[in-house]
Every structure is written in C-alpha cells, then in structure tokens.
Amino acid sequence: MRPVRDRTVLTGSGQPTRCTDLPDRRASCVRGGVVSSRTVTSARTRRRTASDGGTVPGLVRRPLVGWLLAALAVPVLLTAVLIPVKAGSIEDELRAQATTALTDHGINGATVVMDGRDASVLVSTDIDAARIREIVGGVDGVRTVAVATGPGGQAPTTPAPEQQAAGFEIGRTDTAIRVQATVRSELAKDAIKTEVEKVLGPEREYDQRVNVDAANGIEDVGTLSALLHALAIGTGDASVRYDGTTVTLSGAVPDQATKAMVARAAAQAVPGAVIADELQVPVSKPVVSEGCRTFKSRLSEFSRHNRINFLSGTAIVNDASKQSVVRAAELLKTCPTARVEVAGHTDTLGSPATSFPLSEQRAAAVKAELVRLGIPANRILAAGYGQAFPIAPNTTAAGRIANRRAELRALQEN
Q: Does the keyword Transmembrane helix apply (predicted)?
C-alpha cells in the first residue's frame, strides 16, 4: 500500500494546488478552497498508454508546437504571395521609366519588354541601336539591354500573304509607244497617258491598251511610269514587261552603252525586282579605213605596172624586179588587215615535174622578202602553179621571161 504523502503542484492556470496522495492511488487536492479527488497515474503508465494509442487521464497536451509551426509558416506564405507582386511591379516600373527615357530623347513608338531587370527594345530600322542601349541602360535598375529592329517599332507579326501585283507591258517603236495594262480607276488611266505624252515626241503616237478594273487593276501607276521613262532611253523596237517580281527587257537597242543604261534605269524604277535583260545589240562591222577600203583596186593597179620576174631556172628575183617587191611591201602596210597570196609561175623550158616545185620556191622567196620588209607572215599565203598559167607565149625569150614571175592577189576574206 502506498503511504500517504502531501505535495504542492501547479495547475495549467498557474495557481498552486495542495494535494494529498491516498493509499488507493487517488489524491485529494485543494485549490481555491475547493476539494477534489482524482486518480493518480504514474509517468511510466502514461508513456506506455500513449504508445499504445490510448488516452492517458491527466495528460495535458500543450498547443505550443502548433503555434511555433504556424508562426514560421506565415512569413513563408507572405513571401510567396508578395514576391511575384513585387517583381511584377518592378518590371512595370522599369518599363515605364525606359519608355519615358526614350520619349525624352525624341524616340517615340518603341516597344519595351522587361524580363526581370533585362530589357528588350523593339524600334524602327532607322534608329541607331547603340543609342537605344545607352538610353535604356542609363535607367536605374536595368541590367542588360537588347535591341531589335522592325518596321515602325512594332512587335513583329506574321505578314499577311501579299496579293500578286497586276502585270503590265510597255512597247516602243520608232512610230508608237504601246501600254498594255489594267488599272483601278480612270484617274490612273489618265495619269499613264500624261506620262506617255512626256516621252512620246512628235514622230510617235500613243497606242493605248489600258483597261479599268476596280478590283484587280494597278492601284499605283508609279512603277509603270518609271519603267516607261527607262524604256524611252535610246532608239529601236523594245519592250518591258513586269509581272510583280521580274522586269523583263526585250527588243533591240543601238549599242552596249544604251543597253546598260536601260537596265540600270529599270533596276532603279523597281528596287528589289529581278531584272531579266534580253535586249539585243546589233553586231556592228568594224570601221574600215580608207586604205583597206581601196586596197583591192590599188593592188590590181600595182600588178599591172610592177612585175616580179626571176632568173631562168632559179628562185632569184632579177635586178629589174627587186624594187617591185619593195613597193609591194609598202602597199601591204597601207591596210594592216589585208591578206594576199603570192603565186609563183614558170616557163616551159623545164618539165612539169620540175616546174611545180620551182614555182613554189619562187613564191616562198617573195614571201620571205616581204616578211623581211616588215609584213607579218600570217598575212601572206605562198603557192606554186608551175607552167599552168602563162601570160605570154613561151616560144620567145621575152615571153619566157614574162612567164617566170610571181603575182600578188588579194584573198577573198579581205
């Protein structure tokens, strides 16, 4: 049996209570003049009962831990809620300050996007990006600045499909200017006529083939007018056709310089268009000098008055003919492009078998002398004809001397 024992305890309210332990495991307590009794349970019993999941009489659970957890959770929850709001307000504030800074520097219409403290600025293509970085980077709180360019400073959008431009064609001859096109209004049609009259001139007429279609016609005739003036350069029959992407030039122009001018004017009239230059330039014949133009007739005259004869049985020019070879070289120099044939001949004193190689040797000898006198070898063709073409009877000495000769003839290509 447990002995009787007195003790003083503190209750949950903090008031002292006088208790007496009784032998039957009960206690008698006095608090504020009120006597109460309760069953006393040992600490060991309370621990065992609690581990078994039961209820322990007399065990008072304090809410201290719960309040501590709640006190820690509140700041965390407030931080999670307030930080995004704070970040959002910072971005809005920086965006407004950057936009104001740009406006103060005369830059309007820029789009500023903030990602935290990093700024992205979209401006029109005609503004210096370095200046944008300097202005926005000077805003207190902005960390980095990225600059993108685009038309009008607006955020890039997916472009709508472009409507195919209506095509047209302009033709030019020495007597008329033809315009074949479809426009949207009578006003545009009249504007084309006005431009044609500026380049028409008194010798040509306007061949008008312009229709009006309010839905599908050309709205702006500026491109047509510019190409009309480009085609007006030079003379001859020519045309220009435009299909919205390609400018095709065809026909004839007098020279390469005019062709280049027309192509350049077309490129300036339609910037960015593909220029298909099919203009043709006539092949011009080289200018023929007076010396070359009269060379054939002067060579014929030379041959009638100047003989080139040889000693019998040899390829040696006789003394009387040496000056004729010199005069022949001087004649060839008057037309640097002329080519001639030196034809060698013989009399009939020898056999045909020996006469033919002798005639070739005589032609080669005259060619060699002309080359020595300054005539290019590629302008002279040497050929032998033997006894085949006598110019005098071989029955006399004078006739045989005349047949032992070399003649110069202009080649057909001159």
A: yes
